[in-house]
Amino acid sequence: MITTIDHIIERLEGLAPQTAFVLGSGLGGLVGAIENAVHLPYSELAGFPASGVSGHAGELVAGTLAGKPVLMLAGRSHYYEKGDAAVMRPVIEILHGLGIKNLVLTNSAGSLREDLAPGSVMLITDHINLSGTNPLIGEESDRRFVGMTNAYDDGLCDRLRAAARAEDIALGEGVYMWFSGPSFETPAEIGMARTLGADAVGMSTVPEVILGRFVGLNCAACSVITNFAAGMTGGELSHEETKQMAPVGGKRLQTILTRFIADSH
């Protein structure tokens, strides 16, 4: 029986990437930059869930970026879609089985800081899991007790900082707080998040980082800031605003990630 890993390896035709990206809203342009691209819809890959979120393509794309082999997950599934925090576990395990060493995640997020305006990019240096759940709930082995002290790998973060400097792009840094969604946060919740030390809020990434560390991947993540969080401007938040603003910061992050790969060894 041919497994999903076998099928992907066959389609890669000898390409052996060690870095995979998870692309959030607004990063579709990065897929277009891949040369000799192989497109594999999630619907054709056992274990890959179909995302029900507009703005997420739902395909695995492999090829070369800046001359280096890469894998990209164009779209993800979220906890809020079906209430399953481990929805991306099969995907992360498949990436590990393919020989991926480094997992770089991206997302759209709301800013809690005036100096992180919509259209900017933030390097996630740590996270706060406020969702009340965890993708490893139900795991029976002692492997479930995953250390998260260095969840966001120092080496990968330094390389992302260097890439931003080389491209003269401002890269903010901060703590990302995971809310379950799908409703946006209230002003009171944002006040709490700020008090607890968060710099940005969103509805993804944290479970994937936990799963990535669970299987032994080095992880890093960046947020594209699409809006100021609830209560900061007086206006209401919407997913349409997220989709409209994501490409603005997405172009900056695309440049950073391309340089990040170009300068990898």
TrEMBL record:
InterPro entries per UniProt: Nucleoside_phosphorylase_d (IPR000845), Nucleoside_phosphorylase_sf (IPR035994), PUNP (IPR011269), Purine_phosphorylase (IPR011268)
Keyword Transferase tagged: yes
Keywords: Glycosyltransferase, Transferase
Pathway: Purine metabolism; purine nucleoside salvage
GO CC annotation terms, alphabetical: cytoplasm
GO term, biological process aspect, one: nucleoside metabolic process
Class of this enzyme: transferase
GO molecular-function term, one example from the UniProt record: purine-nucleoside phosphorylase activity
Start and end residues of each Nucleoside phosphorylase domain: 24-262
Pfam families: PNP_UDP_1
Enzyme Commission number, as recorded: 2.4.2.1
Assembly and interaction partners: Homotrimer.
Function description: The purine nucleoside phosphorylases catalyze the phosphorolytic breakdown of the N-glycosidic bond in the beta-(deoxy)ribonucleoside molecules, with the formation of the corresponding free purine bases and pentose-1-phosphate.
NCBIfam families named in the record: PNPH-PUNA-XAPA (TIGR01697), PRK08202.1 (NF006054), PUNP (TIGR01698)
Family assignment from sequence similarity: Belongs to the PNP/MTAP phosphorylase family.
Record's protein name: Purine nucleoside phosphorylase
Organism name: Roseitalea porphyridii
